[in-house]
Amino acid sequence: MNQTLQVEQREVMSQGALRQIRLAGKLPGVVYGKGLESPVTITLESKQVQALLRSNPHSVIEMDVPRIGKQTVMMAEIQRDSMSREVQHIDFKRIDMNEKIHTSVRIELQGKSIGEQEGGMIQIIMHELEIECYPKDIPDAIVADVSTLAVGDQLSVSDLKLPAGVASREEASTVIVSILAPQKALSEDEADAAADKAEEDRKHSEAAQAVDKK
């Protein structure tokens, strides 16, 4: 197990009561899935969730639920405040260690590409990879080596070296990163012309504003 969480059972509460839970530094949540007669509403420390999100949000978790016992779960859904982006509620799904699951893992870029060293720019298109495996085989990350990529090159899902027991659920041709050509630097004359045009546009704008005020 990668993580262990201590939780408390709670009754179904009103929005006001849930708000008080959050003010106390805790978060409401629910556990559901095969093996449970019905969803179990829980409360857990907010700092536990934050630590989990920082380390690996897709890890397998052992949760000790009072009156029910230890459950093997994974985070299934995180609800955030639309403005502050603070976590408001979290769903956990019970899993079977003997059954394959679908989940996402982060893609970790390794090395600096040849193209970047020559002035190019790396464009990251995918940050996570959808995979299928047994819970015990979930990696912390999938490493993507970009060190050999030149300007114009791409690295696709088919180029990844996946750990044993892990299969990708993405199309093999899906592009993860590409190396873009360096942006053309402006010559001194082009830079002067651009500055003159910007100044002219500014004067036109000021003139238009003066007319509007009359």
Automatic annotation (TrEMBL):
Gene3D superfamilies: Ribosomal protein L25, beta domain, Ribosomal Protein L25, Chain P. GO terms for molecular function: 5S rRNA binding; structural constituent of ribosome. Residues 5-92 form the Large ribosomal subunit protein bL25 L25 domain. Pfam families: Ribosomal_L25p, Ribosomal_TL5_C. Residues 185-214 are annotated as: Disordered. GO terms for cellular component: cytosolic large ribosomal subunit. The keyword rRNA-binding applies. Residues 194-214 have a biased composition (Basic and acidic residues). GO terms for biological process: translation. Keywords: Ribonucleoprotein, Ribosomal protein, RNA-binding, rRNA-binding. Residues 100-183 form the Large ribosomal subunit protein bL25 beta domain. The keyword rRNA-binding applies. NCBIfam families: bL25_bact_ctc. PANTHER family: RIBOSOMAL PROTEIN L25/GLN-TRNA SYNTHETASE, ANTI-CODON-BINDING DOMAIN-CONTAINING PROTEIN, RIBOSOMAL PROTEIN L25_GLN-TRNA SYNTHETASE, ANTI-CODON-BINDING DOMAIN-CONTAINING PROTEIN. This is one of the proteins that binds to the 5S RNA in the ribosome where it forms part of the central protuberance. Part of the 50S ribosomal subunit; part of the 5S rRNA/L5/L18/L25 subcomplex. Contacts the 5S rRNA. Binds to the 5S rRNA independently of L5 and L18. Belongs to the bacterial ribosomal protein bL25 family. CTC subfamily. This is Large ribosomal subunit protein bL25.
